[in-house]
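User: quick one, sequence for these tokens?
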């Protein structure tokens, strides 16, 4: 074990390191071999296809805040973005997707098939991965449409819920001694409960629109160029380390032969 550690910690001659660094043919050879191996891995074990759907999200913050304070803007963006992200991955949204596509469960969708890129405001990208490019496109289209439906339903219900709340509060103020068994109370409670189930707390000022609905782009989730690039770096690194190892071994053998001759 000690001899093994000594070999690992043994430093190479500066001449060997300089020689390897100056051997550009070695670097090119290793990079080419590595790139070929990377291409082989890509051909034999290709990554899944990735379809992309996009929505344009506009928070219309100028309608929400009457004053322009950066701290208010940041708070609003973070809060609304978290709400929209929660809607995108919620059970209700994914149930809409699985209802349209046979053989796909919510567990499958949450196992890495669906990916969301969400800046604060602007174009939100929805990605779906699958070994079948057509299935990937169907998945992402269903996801985008389900998300759009959920958000618009929340936005449309919000004013109605707010109006009903004001009406209910006015009713209570006008009837402070109303009996709990009054039928109007049950009516208000039922309406408020039904509307509350339909809303996700999304700001009614948010505007969402499709940026593309047909012929969605579908590509490999990892491009072939990435495999080639990583393979070339790995190949060049392995070639350099291998050359240093053999030079060190040859140098050790030469020293041992010199000692034997002496």
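Assistant:
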């Amino acid at each position: 074990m000690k001899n093994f550690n000594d070999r690992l910690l043994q430093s190479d001659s500066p001449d060997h390191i300089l020689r390897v660094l100056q051997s550009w043919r070695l670097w090119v050879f290793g990079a080419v071999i590595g790139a070929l191996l990377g291409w082989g891995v890509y051909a034999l074990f290709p990554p899944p296809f990735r379809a992309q759907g996009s929505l344009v999200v506009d928070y219309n913050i100028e309608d929400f805040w009457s004053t322009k304070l950066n701290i208010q803007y940041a708070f609003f963006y973070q809060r609304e973005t978290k709400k929209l992200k929660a809607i995108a991955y919620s059970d209700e949204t994914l149930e809409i997707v699985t209802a349209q596509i046979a053989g796909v469960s919510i567990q499958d969708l949450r196992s890495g098939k669906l990916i969301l890129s969400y800046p604060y405001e602007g174009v939100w990208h929805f990605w779906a991965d699958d070994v079948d490019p057509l299935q990937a496109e169907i998945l992402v289209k269903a996801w985008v449409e389900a998300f759009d439906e959920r958000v618009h339903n929340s936005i449309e219900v919000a004013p109605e819920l707010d109006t009903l709340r004001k009406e209910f509060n006015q009713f209570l103020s006008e009837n402070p001694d109303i009996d709990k068994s009054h039928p109007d109370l049950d009516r208000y409670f039922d309406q408020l409960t039904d509307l509350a189930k339909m809303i996700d707390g999304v700001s009614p000022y948010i505007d969402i629109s499709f940026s593309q609905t047909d012929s969605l782009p579908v590509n490999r989730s990892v491009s072939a160029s990435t495999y080639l690039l990583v393979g070339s770096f790995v190949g060049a690194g392995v070639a350099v380390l291998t050359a240093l190892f053999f030079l060190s071994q040859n140098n050790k053998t030469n020293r041992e032969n010199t000692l034997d001759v002496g």
